[in-house]
Amino acid sequence: MKHKNSHKELDSIMEERKIAIVTGASRGIGRATAVELAKAGYYVVVNYNSSEAAAAETLAQVQAAGAQGEVQKFDVANADEVKEALARIVGEHKRIDVLVNNAGVTADGLFLMMGEDEWYRVINTILNGFYHVTKPVLREMVRKKRGAIVSVSSISAMMPNRGQANYAAAKAGIIAATRSMCKEVARFGIRVNVVAPGPIDTDMLSSMPVDENTIKSMIPMGRVGKPEEVARVIRFLCSDDASYITGQVIGINGGMF
What we know:
Layout: H1 2-16, E1 19-22, H2 28-39, E2 43-48, H3 52-64, E3 69-73, H4 79-93, E4 98-101, H5 116-144, E5 147-152, H6 165-185, E6 190-197, H7 203-206, H8 212-217, H9 227-238, E7 249-252
Parallel strand pairs: 1-2, 1-4, 2-3, 4-5, 5-6, 6-7
């Protein structure tokens, strides 16, 4: 009898535990978001595609923040991989409370010189990846009649630079899709929002062919942002404190617009 009660207690804990999935969580904004959600008490699913060691470091930081979590490898651009991974997650945890769509890549180049591979690699990861992950998660949230989704867009969606046609198109697509979705799922108690960071101190920024002083000169606050500054906004949008916010795009850009 004691054994049966233990199973019931475990099931009760599993049902009450809040589950968050963060895609592209092995570094940068994704890692910072995973840690912030851990501080808020979420069990964090750390998604990665290429660097297992970096994802393990994110999980270690999640645990250091006092939460539990796990690492899940899948390529958001691969619909079959996403489907299998999400089936495992839902099967084990029975719920998904929060999804943060953060996975992304860049392949900058002038549009006239941009090859199909450069175009589709960015579109498939950012925009199609958004679709692959969000649709099944949204289905589960509708079934539970609760949930919050925050997707990471970019200032490039509104103020694109030369050589970023693929990236700007993908990030703008996320904004448009989210605004449409909010009208479809608000009645189910589900909130969907977007953050649009400006220059943030990440590996992606350091790979840009522009020197740091030039970037800073474009920002009224005179500095680039920190991943944690974006992550804290994401944590807020996932919380009950943001219970009447949906379909919004929050710029985190030091006053660039």
